[in-house]
Design a protein that fits this description.
alpha+beta; about 25% strand
Length: about 700
Amino acid sequence: MARNTNKKKAFLSKKRYVELILNHLDSRPLGAFSAKTITKNLGFRDKPSKGIIKEMLLQLSNQGLVKQLQNGSFTSGRELKFLAGVVDFVNPKFCYVVIPEMDEDVWVRANDMNGAMDGDLVKVALQRSNRHGKRPEGIIQEITERARNEFVGKVEMSDRYAFVIPDHRKMYLDIFIPPGKILKAKNRDKVVVRITDWPAARNQKPTGEVVRVLGQAGENEAEIHSIMAEFGLPFEFPETILSAANKIKDHISKNEIAKRRDFRSITTFTIDPEDAKDFDDALSIKHLENGNIEVGVHIADVTHYVRPGSIIDEEALERATSVYLVDRTIPMLPERLSNELCSLRPNEDKLTFSAVFEIDGNARVKTQWFGRSIIHSDQRFSYEEAQQRIETVEGTFSKELTILNELALKLRINRFKRGAINFETTEVKFQLDDQGKPLAVIPKIRKDAHKMIEEFMLLANRKVADFIYHRKKGKEKETFVYRIHDYPNAEKLTAFSVFAKKFGHDLRIEEQAIAKSLNNLIEDIEGKPEQDVLQQLAIRTMSKAKYTTEAKGHFGLAFEHYSHFTSPIRRYPDVLVHRMLAHYLNNGQNLPKDEFEEMCVHSSDREKRAADAERASIKFKQVEFMQSMNDQEFEGIVSGVTEWGIYVELVKTKCEGMVRLSDMGDDFYEFDEDNYRVVGKRSKNAITLGDLVMVTVKKTDIDRRTIDLQLV
């Protein structure tokens, strides 16, 4: 049969030989091949074809369509187009390179990755697709910048050497550790390893050295430290930063007080979580003679203590945000500032930056004032204590809290009337023992006290942004740091509306109608089985909020302009906003846009890093909590459907795990992407996104932070 095929090939036209040769070489633009290898690769074995191919190669070389190298081999004559992009490593077999100027990502086989890893900046050479034109293909020619050179993983020891198995899900190679480069790590220790020699080929492993031993895998400290190292979070402040912070004096001079508006005689209090120590916002309330209420939103004046360009400021900018893991906070500022000097502790004079509003009975703002101030907090409430006073109208400042809560409820109603999206996602917290082991997973419940503080913070953030935007008339506005949120992606919205229709919900996706339509949907699905899944999918259609100097609006909150003013102890953009607001209030000149945009991009990146680390720590505790639950049955909701399995979120604990299709032994299930479901080939049994299922825990993996579930 093969001989007949080759006989037919021998009678191909020369034009067809040329097409085959050019396609072969163009599909491997960085390779060089002998005439014999090209003939073999094209599938020819007969002598006539060998002769014709060699003849054609020489002719093509003379025409400049093919290059012949000094060693006699041939390579593509096509001028290579190298594009810069970022590697998105999908699985051990291939990756994508995300290129900003291209609509589609470039598909690259593992053999053609040239040792690139996930997140690396690379130059990729495009080639003709051999995959029926589905997606452009390429070969990575050069790695211009490594995304990271340190990884966290678990040590596997042998007599003469060791390997580190990385925790990073997109690092598919173990790291070889030569003798003498292991520090004092023991078998199964979690460590931080630095790569000293990257692999040049797929079958090679990177070489590295252990730079930090975190402890035994599975122990709380080791696992939390490994999350911190994985995301590049700092373990401590440098001694120079702590020393500089400790030298800052806490004395408030009379001269400083004279520069500020004095609120010390006005009723003021803070409301924060029970375990909080960094109180960065306070509310004051005063009854005015005209019947209106003066509400002061007082924010810790971090910029009084942290000067631009100081080493504390540079460290704060680098961190850009505090990070809240399940059992600890990694603060943006040293404790001397965050928990002492700047914290609005009760019964102490504190320097603040305030947004003060005269508000009528319908929660309409009649007048506003922004500026530096001094306060004296009368009471420190936990959310639970404030809620108890709101509900019973008994206890210290219960009347003031009730009035503020009534105003906040009206502000909230007005915000939703303007088109704000009413997403209420359920977050969880953990009850931990002294060793950090989770005893219980508890859903966080948001009550009126939480929502009251939220509304006044939103009011201050919005009004500060509006104030700066409207200060200067005309198109050219003063440079400022905004918090923006774009309209949802049109394609995602369309797909979501199609899915919602399967549950009987119609969603209007026109720009002017989407907000109201989404709110109607959220109201309609409350208490129904599909509530969680539709709300989660709706959130996934949303764009990501970010910091920028572009004066755009906030879709989710329905604000024309919005900023972050209310948390400078834990967010660097708020520090920038305080400085810029003070600068303009003192009639300063317009500030350089590029410089602040760069800090906005950095802050947005750091915010994402913090969110990813926080999710990883929650996932670790969820996996740890579920380790002892192997023989229990749980009710869950199908929260995701993929070609390799279905994700299930447990109703009771909010933990998410996967039921792999390969473990569903009652049938062979196939992925139906268009309908968000898997379907049994024989039984036609369908499991769809949002379905209620019963599952047991099959396996937990602390290292990968995964839970494998089994359908009951």
